Each structure stands twice: as C-alpha cells, then as structure tokens.
C-alpha cells in the first residue's frame, strides 16, 4: 500500500513534486477528502478549489477536482488565489475548500491546505489522518473509484474578496502613504493590486510601489519567506532609498505579512499583534485575544491594559484557531506573522493585518518607528534553532540548570526567572531540532540568558 505519511503533515499536505505529490495522489486525496467530510456529517456536495502561482498548481488542483467528482461531489474552481482568498470563499459560500500551495517552501514543493465549510481547519486530529488513510487505500486499488461526471464550475472571487476586506478596515480617510510591497513573486502580486490598489475598486490614499509582483513559482529573486532576514534585504534597501512610509513583505501564498518601518527596520510580529489587538478591542471592548506562548510578554500586558482578556496558546494555527473558536476571540496573533480574525471566520489573513497597520499609521501623523515603539517593551532573541541528538535529555539538562525558576509545559518548556526574563525551548515536530526563544527587560540581559541556554543546548 502507498505510504503518504511523509506527505501528509500535522496541519496540511506538503511534499516534493512529482516524487511525493503527483496527479494520481492529488486525485486520491480529492476523493478521500469528500468521503471524510461525509463520514463526519459535513455537507460535501461542492468543494471550492484554488491554487497559487506554482507551475504544478493547475494540474494538481484539476486532478484533485477529478477525485472530488469521482466521489460524487461538484467542484467550484476559483483559479489563482492567495490562501486567505480561499478561506474567504470557504467562509462566505459555506463550502469546504482545498488550497494548493506550499507557502514559503522552495519551487520543487507543492501542497494542500484543507478546510471544512466556514474555513474551519482540517488537521491531523480533525480529519487529515482519515484523509491520508483513505487516499492510501484508493492508491492501492486502481479501480477503487471511476471518474464521475465532470461537474466543474469556475468563478472569479477576487473583487468580492477585496470588497470584503475593505468593509472590515476603512482606509479611505487616512493620510497619504507611500507603501513598498515585496510580494516575493508570490500571490501578493495578485491580491495587492485588487485590495490596496485600484485594479477592481476605487483608489485609496496609498501609493503602492511594487517589488517582485510577477507571479513566478521558481522564486527568481529570493525565497518568499519573510521570516528569514535575508529575504527582507531588498525591501529594506528600497524603503531607505525611496523614502517610503512603510514596507510590507508577503510569503508565497500571502497569508502572512511582515512589516518594515520607514527606517528599514522590521517591526516585530509581537508588536503587530499588540497593535491590531488594541484596534479590535476598541471596536469590541472586553473581548478575548489569543496569543501564542512565544510572543512578547508585552502582548498580554497591552491586551489587559486595553480591557481585553489575553489567552495564551500553543504554537501552531490549529491550536490558535481552536482556542479562538472556543473563546469567541476577536483576534489572534503568532510570532510567525500569522494573524487570525473573528471577522474572517477565525482564519488567518496577512492582508487584513497589513490593512490594520496602514489604518493605524495613516490615522495619525507619527512615523511607523514611533508608533511601533509603543508596543515594543522588551528585548527578544527571535527563534534560534539547534540540532541535538537527544532532545528530551537536552531539555532536562537545561531545566536542571535553572532550579529556582518557574516552569510551565504548555508547549515545550517555558522558564520564567525572578527578574522577568524568560525563555521557551520547544522541540521541532519534524526535525531533531530544539527551538529557543528568549526575552528580557534589557538587551544585555537577553543576550546573557540566550548565551547561557545555548551553551547548554549545544555542548
């Protein structure tokens, strides 16, 4: 029997094309997805399917659609889209969805993000393991499902998606801003002109300067992963040279955004989480806001100061989305620049987060560096990865080095010291890595604690 365990991950499907993911596998996954939905009591009469700019996207998504048809369900194809546009389609139309993307992975990869109707996530524990097992069975029996009648409808939802986002954040009255956007040859090059430009809706007081808007899944300029500082260098240089007010970098499927200030300096995702939280709490006083456990300690402080209820979550979108649904949270933010909105079916959208930042910046006169400083209270290391042979043993070695500290194990090990400094040590789900995040009231204290922990981890 085919083994898809290396392809079907904890949260999505992702692998090398065609070695791991090809049209036969995509077709089997399409059938398996419909069957899983029906077995769990969900309506699966029609599935909405989209793909990003990767060369393999059209063929794989069409094959998945044939699998959907083979299971007796219809396909609504929306063609090229960002991941959050697929979530918009799933949420607004009430349909389960499949987004073909490998996000920021290199060109040879592709993958699928699956969701139930209303953009509700499908992960390992919420249907993905069932999809994998059923697809493996289908691949083992070439006669398992004959192609059904081709029931495929196509629709362009770009204008509707853009109009929906503009209905959530009004940018029409802000001061004029010069905005440089690095789309990394990803789907931001498709969605930014529609949402922030005048391609399908009236112009906003924004001068958009495009960088790498040509859709190209080979990523000829740099990887479409804004969390890697190397991929921000071109944008930072352009901001300084052109005197822009703000820079925005999107990842490949444009569900994450990274913000750069007028000096070319990154604004931390924790600061963006706090800024957006304050704006949403002004609209919905007393609401819950979710943050993962490695965002800055400033985030829950600022949420509380503005009358909100901070709730700490494990790292990962399935945990954040589950907590948001459980608490009816208005907003959620992660250190990885994923931002989730109740107004957007609890799903993540980098575009909506960027619009909140533009509204906050354009609604007052100070530069972004000053505005962002309000939300940056502590010195943070960022995530540092170390390869280790025995992850559990190394975690215990670090724990024993801090005998008087407070320790919690919501996700990995978080150690909080009496002076307010803290660190989190988490094992990777997929590699023999330990991930370290450190924060302290002052930069020198952060550096000394970081070096102390790393010395133990790496010896």
UniProtKB/TrEMBL annotation:
Q: Which residues form the Alpha-D-phosphohexomutase C-terminal domain?
A: 383-454
Q: Which SUPFAM superfamilies match?
A: Phosphoglucomutase, C-terminal domain, Phosphoglucomutase, first 3 domains
Sequence ranges assigned to domain Alpha-D-phosphohexomutase alpha/beta/alpha in this UniProt record: 6-126, 160-264, 272-378
What organism is listed for this UniProt entry?
Paractinoplanes rhizophilus
Q: Which Gene3D superfamilies match?
A: Alpha-D-Glucose-1,6-Bisphosphate, subunit A, domain 3, Alpha-D-phosphohexomutase, C-terminal domain
**Lineage of source species:** Bacteria, Bacillati, Actinomycetota, Actinomycetes, Micromonosporales
Keywords for this entry? Isomerase, Magnesium, Metal-binding, Phosphoprotein
Which protein family is named in the record?
Belongs to the phosphohexose mutase family.
Name the cofactor(s).
Answer: Mg(2+)
Pfam families on file = PGM_PMM_I, PGM_PMM_II, PGM_PMM_III, PGM_PMM_IV
Record's protein name: Phosphomannomutase/phosphoglucomutase
Q: Which domain of life is it from?
A: Bacteria
CDD domains (alphabetical) = PMM_PGM (cd03089)
